[in-house]
Amino acid sequence: xxxxxxxxxxxxxxxxxxxxxDLYPDPMSIVNECEQLSIFTIAVTNLPSHFMxxxxxxxxxKKVRLAVGMHPLYANMHAQEFHYFLExxxxxxxxxxxxxxxxxxxxxTKEIQYNSFERILSSIKGxxxxxxxxxxKAESDVFDLLLKxxxxxxxxxxxxxxxxxxxxxxxxxxxxxINPEMVKSKNSIETLRRIPxxxxxxxxxxxxxxxxxxxxxxxxxxxxxxxLAFILKISHLSAQxxxxxxxxxxxxxxx
Length: 255
Hints:
Layout: H1 2-12, E1 15-19, H2 27-37, E2 40-43, H3 48-54, E3 64-66, H4 78-88, E4 94-99, H5 110-124, E5 130-134, H6 139-148, E6 153-157, H7 163-171, E7 175-178, H8 186-194, E8 200-202, E9 210-211, E10 214-215, H9 222-232, H10 236-251
Parallel strand pairs: 1-2, 2-3, 4-5, 5-6, 6-7, 7-8
Antiparallel strand pairs: 9-10
Helix pairs in contact: 3-4, 4-5, 9-10
């Protein structure tokens, strides 16, 4: 009986700070599972109009929180969506997915992205909001802008930037969210070893990752804490406790 009870305890402490719940074939099944298993989940969106579609559906949820986003790869839609973003800010303490993408996929809209991201940060400066950040190939610019606008709480989602920048990001009090794909990558593991335990959180980034030969779900995040336990040379329960405590510290700014 000890093994099932242990698993229940681990599941109840899970935290998913970056999940695209609205992009699953059946979003409410994911929401209901998170509620039933007591997995605190930040459901990020790619545009404010997407937030508006889901907001009322999740009002009664205790564990799932909807975040308003302006994904950098949707930069050509930001101008027409920005007034919605400002309106949605009144309804949530969570902002994401936002940021910059200078990869081959996003470089064509670099200037639009930068101006939009700066406008977003300017609009929330001084407010107690929690940000989930996209920073692919643009980590230094993202970090500099967060500091410029005195952002208190930010999570670097699926960080793939220079290991040397990790120290500065962590020293600023920002977090890194780790997903099941990252613990498979040699380069990501090198980054994980550099991140202070007090700056680590977990994410699924569902449904964009496969886990156990299917699309990942928030309930799969025990895999991440198991790998973190191995990297940190601590028990699985200790790794989960670190993540839980980090998350409590993060959300204390909005309580």
